[in-house]
Amino acid sequence: FSFKPSALKITIQEPRQRAQQAPDYYLRRRQHHAKDGAPSRNHTTKTMESMSVVMNRWICHCKFLGVDEYEYMDIAEKEDIMTFLDWMLDTFPRIRKRSSVLEYKRVFFLIYRKSMKRGFDREAASEIHDYITGELTLSYALDTTTEEKPVLNGDDIYLILHHHWVHDRSKFPDEHQRIQLALMIQIQSYTATRPRVLAYVSINKKRIAAHYIGQSMDVNLTAQWNPEEDDFRTVSYRDVTLPFAKPRSA
Questions:
Q1: Residue 154 shares a structural domain with residue 221
Q2: Nearest residue to 206 (alpha-carbon basis) of 222, 182, 230
Q3: The three-state (H, E, C) secondary structure of the chain, written as one string
Q4: What angle do CA 41, 84, 146 make, to 5 degrees?
Q5: For the chain, which terminus, N or C, has the lower number of CB atoms within 10 Å?
Q6: Which residue segment(s) compose the domain that 225 sits in?
Q7: In the beta sheet, which residues pair with residue 105?
Q8: Is 11 part of a structural domain of the chain?
Q9: Average pLDDT value for residue range 102-117
Q10: Which of these, 170, 153, 193, 173, lies nearest to 250 by C-alpha position?
Q11: What is the per-residue pLDDT across 22-31, written as a single tens digit (0 to 9) for each?
Q12: Is the pLDDT of residue 157 over 90?
């Protein structure tokens, strides 16, 4: 009932030769699948290390309560998991972020599935999640802040293009390449980040319909277009051609 990453071994099985078997064979296979329960997953070494940490804490929790860790996990309900999280926060004060508690919960369900050969009840798991994000977060003043990720936004694109058009002193064999480079910068920017971070305004369906359709007050037309789902294709990749021009010889 322990998880040791060093004990992991990769077994390479030869593929089965496909041939239809007798009916009794598939009936036995059905019994075999029913007996095995939930299929086990091949976890990565890092995941196995996390499972080992959580499992050791579950064992300590069960010893503190004076119960068997395996039998207690077998009959565990949502209240038992909530109590385990309470005990863990009381015992390990260095756990201060809500994201860490959610990760412990996720890893515990992996252990539960691997050990009990079945998944934890989904409705109960959802209530445990609500308990973590609600009462548990408030009771233990868990940190809910997230670190900002360095993603490209509209201001960054503006600075890059401004430098390209105003301050860049690079010489191009053909000035058309300067225009093409600006377009390539925008294409790379739009495909390398989330589109939402490049927009600072909410979607106005009437203004978009007026721009693309021409009649913003025509209900019949605007109802047929959904700016959140439909693709207006103002500029698509297939509409852009970037010809390669060889530099002129001196």
A1: no
A2: 222
A3: CCCCHHHCCCCCCCCCCCCCCCHHHHHHHHHHHHHHCCCCCCCCHHHHHHHHHHHHHHHHHHHHHCCCHHHHHHCCCHHHHHHHHHHHHHHCCCCCEHHHHHHHHHHHHHHHHHHHCCCCCHHHHHHHHHHHHHHHHHHCCCECCCCCCCCCCHHHHHHHHHHHHHHCCCCCCCCHHHHHHHHHHHHHHHHCCCHHHHCCCCCCHHHHHHHHCCCCCCHHHHCCCCCCCCCCCCCCHHHCCCCCCCCCCC
A4: 75
A5: C
A6: 201-244
A7: none
A8: no
A9: 90
A10: 173
A11: 888 888 888 8
A12: no
The arithmetic mean of pLDDT across residues 205-209, rounded, is: 56
pTM: 0.53
| pLDDT tens track for 43-72 | 778 888 888 999 999 999 999 999 999 999
Are residues 224 and 188 part of one domain? no
Domain count, the chain: 3
